[in-house]
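Dear colleague,

Thank you for sharing your sequence with our group. We've completed the structure prediction you requested, and as agreed, I am returning the results in plain text so they can be pasted directly into your records. Please verify that the sequence below matches your submission; if there's any discrepancy, let me know and we will rerun it promptly.
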Amino acid sequence: MSRKLTLATLAFASILAVGCGEEKKEEAAATGNAAPTQEAATAPAAPAGGDIVIAVAGPMTGELAAFGEQLKRGAEKAVADINAKGGVLGKQLKLEIGDDQCDPKQAVQVANDLVKKGVAFVAGHFCSGSSIPASAVYAEEGIVQITPASTNPAFTEDMAAKGVKTVFRTCGRDDAQGVFAGPWLATTYTGKNVAILDDKSAYGQGLANETAKNFEGAGGKIALRDTYTAKEKDFSALISKLKDAKIDAVYIGGYHNDVGLIVRQAREQGLEAAVISADALNTAEFWSISGPAGEGLRYSDGASAVNLDSAKDVVAAFRADKYEPEGYTLNSYAAIQAWAAAATKANATDGAKVAEALRAAPVPTVIGDLTFDAKGDLTKVNYAWYVWHDGKAVQEPLN
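Please find the predicted structure tokens below.
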């Protein structure tokens, strides 16, 4: 049995042992114990004389397909632009697309399938609960993985602890976002009843925990800390709890589809509490679910890159094709752009050499010059508040 299939079996068994939840500690354990040291891993070589195969992976179908579309659009555009300029190392890039539906078990299967296809690099996955188990498969093969969207700290922390150096992200982390959101909540809702909820996923739980920690650290007192089950259709029981606790503001760590339903049903049932969330609401699909009930809802995310000079031409090209590069579209483009620049600098697609080049100096991308630390995290992310108004998310000025 190959090492990667053994790893997939271990990951499957560990995920089944913790049920359908994506809690970060269980998932990290599912992958971390099997992760090899990076020194022994070597990425599959590109087909001799042929294309260099790379991939983008995420929820291309299912409840979170809007985000998969963002990753796919960004990746396809990056590949087209790079190929138009001659490709990488004199070869054209060929893009494979993996659909994990944000399911941890499916993510492991997708990762193994991409390894069989000889990918040299993966931009993905989207959900932290998918990126974490998939990362062990890629690390086993020495394949560079850059997630445009997974924010759980365990994604980079746990692999770094194992000596793995080929995981990166072009987005921020939950702990940094918690530092941004928690104190703001404490200051804005001093003396008010604040609830903090999460959907029990690696993303939602990690984000809510970090926000709660920083909220309390800034002097806030949590009136209600609770969870809900993702993809429910009726949140009446949860809303009744919020009403009984006389909640003035509720922070939700979860995805746009659930948050949209929660806020809509809350307004229908007479709960007027302010609703605050995070980057998973960065899709126009949120408003299609919430409707006017989403008016005034606030979420945090990295400051938008659409108006940066570095993104001007790419954004204009997207818009010319009648597509607005929302959410993680540009992060996905940047992930492939960064990998291509590093491979060119290293004069190789070998994962260890590309990873070293990524850390060696700032990498120019559409979302700005990116500097990665030893763990593969960005050294700086500017966060901003976005407020939904009349069907659009408007970024507030940076402080």
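Summary note from our side: The longest strand covers residues 52-58.

Kind regards,
the structure core
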